[in-house]
């Protein structure tokens, strides 16, 4: 099965958010929390993030931006750990088994630094799949618009703390 950049980003976003800790903001500035993420992300020289569509309200946008930040943090930590400990690391074995370290590093790089110019995260249920799967779909790609990912309400309600990741 061949994955595209949008598949990797959607998978990472949904997986990271499912494992993410409750969001704690170090600011009360709505403008700052609503603003696009900086390209300068610790651990990544050219981090890129998908656009968030206008159908996402302030809370949706805050949580998606927090999820993107969590994804950057987790992948930077993973990349650093791979470089320091290699394939003999217990966490590497747990999460990637006998998978190639080059594949894992490539996926991390693709997730964080590949162009996401055409990708769009949206919060409306344009295709009705969120309503049809309210306790199952955290999000999905739109068949009629493959670069778009719909984020469902279940995504926001099914988060688990970061400490369960390890």
UniProtKB/TrEMBL annotation:
Record bears the keyword Hydrolase: no
Pfam families per UniProt: HRXXH
Signal peptide feature range: 1-20
Top-level taxon of the source organism: Eukaryota
Keywords: Signal
Limits of the Putative peptidase domain: 11-162
Annotated protein name in UniProt: Putative peptidase domain-containing protein
